[in-house]
Design a protein that fits this description.
single chain; 325 residues; alpha/beta; six-stranded mixed β-sheet; five-stranded mixed β-sheet; 10 helices; globular; binds zinc ion
């Protein structure tokens, strides 16, 4: 596997650069940071019967597990799916929703021997667009219940400890009219504040959400609009980026052990540092919904290395999928 210059640069942890250049690491001269956890972040899989998507997802899972033979890299300790596991059930009827979840369950059972944890994405929420899905809202699997059942969880969010890190999986998707908005509700804010307060100061934290907490994407692809002599203005839709990002920044300021936020949803690769926080976005297994690259982003996944000094290294790994008719 060939990594581009940018990917190689992104892959080098900041503290590693300091050591490699002969500069002392922050504080005192210490040993190079030790990688304690490697996770593969497979987001926006959008599995569906069309365009050989199930075979593409299988190829991606196999690629992750063949990294030792393929690229001389150690296999990850776990896979985190970042949401939008299936093409869509927000506005899809029961039969096709079941068909898509069946494809995911089979791909996982047949092609994955690693631990998998899953984040819920907007397209994994069943039936909120009732006029198209034909739902009433009283179905036992309505909303997030279906995805929770598929992921074997009681709640749409969770946190766990692994490799000396605390990993938080958020639920970014809440109803807005017949669709969704990117935010946490009061119950999840309450849970998150308590969860982070209980993390020891020396334990680094990675926060994973489907919708990015912060992103440059709406500006990068947007066009400023203006009427008459008015100042041209960019618009950021509240279903692209978390509308409550300011509250996150306040919370993270209270908990400096939170080192990075990882997301999907946008199908592009981003690495932003803002206010002392890394905001990473991991492209998409499905690239442009199985129809080709999306804004230059190939079919791929992120390999995320977490180090004992709280640094994070992330590289985007295309898995070689070619668009099928
Ligand atoms: Zn999404």
């Amino acid at each position: 596997m060939a990594l581009s210059r940018r990917e190689l640069l992104v892959a080098v942890p900041v503290a590693g650069l300091a050591v490699a250049s002969g500069l002392p690491a922050r504080g005192e001269a210490s040993a190079a940071p030790r990688r304690v956890l490697r996770l593969a972040h497979l987001t926006d899989l959008h599995i569906q019967p069309e365009r050989e998507a199930a075979r593409g997802v299988a190829a991606c899972l196999e690629h992750v597990q063949s990294l030792p033979e393929r690229a001389g890299l150690e296999a990850p300790d776990l896979i985190v799916t970042g949401g939008d596991t299936i093409m869509d059930c927000l506005e899809t009827g029961r039969d096709r929703t079941k068909l898509q979840w069946d494809l995911w369950r089979k791909a996982k059972a047949d092609h994955c021997g690693l631990e998998v944890r899953s984040v819920i994405g907007n397209h994994d929420v069943w039936g909120w667009t009732k006029s198209k899905a034909g739902t009433k809202g009283d179905e036992p699997l309505y909303g997030k219940a279906w995805a929770c059942e598929e992921f074997g969880r009681a709640t749409p969010w969770e946190s766990f400890d692994k490799g000396g890190w605390h990993i938080v999986l958020l639920d970014s998707t809440f109803p807005h009219q017949e669709s969704y908005i990117g935010k946490l509700d009061d119950a999840q804010w309450d849970w998150l504040e308590k969860d982070l307060a209980a993390v020891p100061a020396a334990t680094p934290v990675l926060v994973i959400s489907h919708i990015p907490i912060l992103s440059i994407y709406p500006l990068a692809v947007g066009r400023p609009e203006s009427e008459g002599d008015a100042l041209p203005t960019f618009t950021v839709n509240g279903n692209l980026v978390h509308v409550d990002h300011a509250r996150f920044q306040k919370l993270f300021a209270k908990h400096p052990q939170v080192k990075a936020c990882l997301s999907g949803h946008l199908h592009i690769v981003e690495d932003i540092e803002y206010g002392g926080m890394r905001y990473l976005c991991s492209g998409a297994v499905a690239a442009g919904w199985w129809r080709g690259f999306h804004h230059g982003t190939d079919y791929g996944y992120s390999l995320v290395d977490l180090f004992d000094d709280g640094t994070v290294a992330c590289r985007y790994v295309p898995y070689g999928w070619k668009t099928q008719a």
